[in-house]
Amino acid sequence: MTAHALADTATLTGRSLRHILRSPDTIITTAVTPVALMLLFVYVLGGAIDTGGGSGSYIDYMLPGILLITVASGIAYTSYRLFLDLQGGIFERFQSMPIARSASLWAHVLTSLVANLVSIVLVVGVALLMGFRSTANVAQWLAVVGILLLFILALTWVAVIAGLAAKTVDGASAFSYPLIFLPFISSAFVPTGTMPGPVAWFAEHQPVTPIVNSIRALLAGQAPAGDLWIALAWVAGILVVAYVAAMALYRRRWL
């Protein structure tokens, strides 16, 4: 983007962030479901689940999956806010003003990035109160943050597609339900080896498992080995495909 487009994007991002500050319940609501799942799995089901992880606590094992569910829950609001702007005529007003036409779309993407990071911080804070501990060094924590940032961006562009293509408010956010459910059929809560054959195969070969395994290893101060490259390949692939599809849809509709 040019300097003019960057300035316009920054202005519109500030507008979107102010809307969130005036209605912080969206971020709180995003964090409620993951926190409720943590409470359920740790204090109700955790004692009956054998992760084969030695002395580590169950909250340490399942937190990476909870973080992905947090993001999947949060991007539904991105699609919802984008859909409301489209239906409310905001985009038409912006198109008539001397601003970069891509700025309004990028503002939603950056707002999603900030809002989801805040939700993740809230969830990690609750996890610390519940006993989560990490032996990761600074570089490993930065690697975790980097993976989560890429994951947020990838799912945000998926949310942009849904927001641009939706015909109803419910349709704009309903796409996130499968994404929230996907971690449950992965290594997020139990080892994939404990699952029946076909389910285990799917869990091993879907994108959430290598992402969860990589984050879990990094938080435990270990090297994620080959899982990291598989995770990055999945996230980068989803990001590129979703971005290209979203921009094509946006150009066809508005540019």
Description:
The protein contains eleven helices and no strands. Helices cover 76% and strands 0% of the residues. It has helices at residues 3-22, 25-45, 58-87, 90-95, 103-129, 138-165, 169-174, 176-181, 197-205, 208-219, 226-254. The radius of gyration is 19 Å and the shape is elongated. It has one domain.
Helical percent range? over 70%
Ranges where pLDDT stays below 50 over 5 or more residues in a row are: none
- The helix-strand sequence is HHHHHHHHHHH
Main beta sheet: none
- Computed CA radius of gyration, to the nearest angstrom: 19 Å
Q: How would you state the average pLDDT, rounded?
A: 83
Q: Report strand %.
A: under 5%
Give the topology, please.
Layout: H1 3-22, H2 25-45, H3 58-87, H4 90-95, H5 103-129, H6 138-165, H7 169-174, H8 176-181, H9 197-205, H10 208-219, H11 226-254
Helix pairs in contact: 1-5, 2-3, 2-5, 3-5, 3-6, 3-10, 5-6, 6-10, 6-11, 10-11
